[in-house]
C-alpha cells in the first residue's frame, strides 16, 4: 500500500515525553493506517474504516 500521501497525526492519548506514541492516518481511500511514531519508516497496521471504528469503540468501552 502506498502511504506517500498519508497525513499522520499523533493519537490524543499518546505520551508527550516522546514515549508511547501512536500515529494514525485516516485520509487514505478505504483504509486507516496506524504506526509507531518512534519508527516512522517502519511497518504500519492497516484497517478498513469499519474495522477501525469497531476497534476504537471497543477501546473506548474498556477505558
Tell me what the structure shows.
InterPro entries: DUF397. It comes from Micromonospora deserti. It holds the Pfam family DUF397. This is DUF397 domain-containing protein. This protein is an alpha+beta fold and about 60 residues long. The protein has one domain. About 20% of the residues lie in helices and about 20% in strands. It has one helix and four strands, in the order E-E-E-E-H. The chain has one helix at about 50-60, and strands spanning about 10, 20-25, 30-35, 45. Strands 1-2-3-4 form a four-stranded antiparallel β-sheet. Strand 2 and strand 3 form a beta hairpin. The protein is flat, with a radius of gyration of 12 Å.
The number of helical runs is 1
Overall mean pLDDT = 88
Task: Please identify the structural class as seen in this structure.
Answer: alpha+beta
- Domains counted in the coordinates: how many? 1
**Into which percent range does the helicity of residues fall?**
10-25%
Q: Topology as H/E string?
A: EEEEH
Protein name: DUF397 domain-containing protein
Region (Disordered): 1-20
Domain DUF397: 6-59
Pfam families: DUF397
